[in-house]
Amino acid sequence: MVKFLIPLVLFIIMAIFLAMGLHLNPSEIPSPLLNKQAPAFTAPKLLAPTETLSPADLKGKVWLFNVWASWCVSCRAEHSVLNQLAQQPNIMVVGLNYKDNPEDARGWLTALGNPYAVSITDQEGRVGLDWGVYGVPETFVIDKKGIIRHKHTGPVTVQDVENVLQPLVAQLQAEAE
Amino acid sequence: MKCLIFLVLLWVNTVYAIDAKQFTDQKQQADYESLTSELRCLVCQNQTIADSNAELAADLRRQVYEMLQQGQTREEIIAFMTARYGDFVLYKPPFKIKTSVLWLGPIVFLSIGLLMVFWLIRTKAQKKVEDEQEHGHQEKLVKIRRLLNEEEERS
Asked: Are A129 and B84 a contacting pair, CB within 8 Å?
């Protein structure tokens, strides 16, 4: 009896691990920045290169930080979702134009619409490195105190907006400064 | 000629992602080489940043190089990277509750394997002894019967 049970138990254990493996996404790496202060930067604005922006300027606001680039194919898929999202009141999307040519980036926004309240340029990817960016697009949610509360890797879908981002932003809006 | 081209192609595959970097001394170069071969490229996850040609890997190499130039230590650079990318960026993760399965798993599986080998050897050896005993018993029975038969024939 035991002889037949051992392979069965081994098989069940293996099946459990393999099933878990099937549902994990290896490209989704948990960010150590979650629930920490957003990394500081001072970077030029894409549409007004003489002006700069830093997270300190956004204290007291709930904002989304979306990493994008004109060379990024998934960003194109995400863009219409962001355009819709940006039309809603109380939602502020800040863009990080990551390792891109500013000319191309400006052309992209003109052609596809601009969901960003403001975009900043990061041609060398230094701001991205500080934020632990490893794949574009990525989206962070930052609360009124300047703390990163959520990170989304990969293109944002309509479902993500409805199920995760909107409820979270509403919840963070209700929090005290 | 074809053979030569083939060999050249094979060789190209093994070449690292090389950027021209100037080091102030040998220790700095050694630190750079060991650090870049310990940090994982997060885009192509099975490569170190020394091996990878991904843009992110080049950025991380540049970061390591610049931090070394500023005189920062290995530990400081590793802390910098894990603060941004988590333990996942390290090919040699620290021992924590979360990584305990990773570190202890091989030992546990080896022990299970060894236990099973011992168990198999012991049951086999026991069976052999029993078989021999059984065999000896049978031989004795045959002998007894023969003796009894001889006795009967004689009487």
From this structure: yes
Distance CA B30, CA B119 (A): 49
SS3 A66: strand
Mutate to test the interface with B, among A134, A136, A138, A148 (most CBs of B within 10 A): A134
Digit-by-digit pLDDT tens for chain B (155 residues) are 666 666 666 555 555 556 678 888 888 999 999 999 999 998 887 889 999 988 899 999 999 999 999 999 999 999 999 999 988 899 888 888 888 888 999 999 999 999 999 999 999 998 888 888 888 888 888 999 999 998 888 77
Residue located via tokens 């091989």: B106
Whether A132 and B45 lie within 8 Å, measured CB to CB:
no
Most distant CA pair in chain A: distance in Å?
Answer: 79
CATH numbers and ranges of domains, chain A: 33-174 (3.40.30.10)
- Here the tokens at position B23 are 């080091």
Please give the model's pTM, rounded to 2 decimal places.
0.76
Other C-beta atoms closer than 10 Å to the C-beta of B20 total 4
Q: Bridge-partner residues for A19, per DSSP? A: none
Smallest Cα distance from A89 to chain B, Å:
32
Task: Please report the ipTM that was assigned to this predicted complex.
Answer: 0.81
Q: Look up the CATH number of domain B15-94.
A: 1.10.8.640
Shortest CA distance to A88 belongs to which of A152, A161, A145, A171? A161
Map chain B to HEC letters: CHHHHHHHHHHHHHCCCCCCCCCCCHHHHHHHHHHHCCEECCCCCCCECCCCCCHHHHHHHHHHHHHHHCCCCHHHHHHHHHHHHCHHHECCCCCCCCCHHHHHHHHHHHHHHHHHHHHHHHHHHHHHHHHHHHHHHHHHHHHHHHHHHHHHHHC
Q: Do A130 and B84 touch (CB under 8 A)?
A: yes
Residues B81, B60: Cα–Cα separation, whole Å: 9
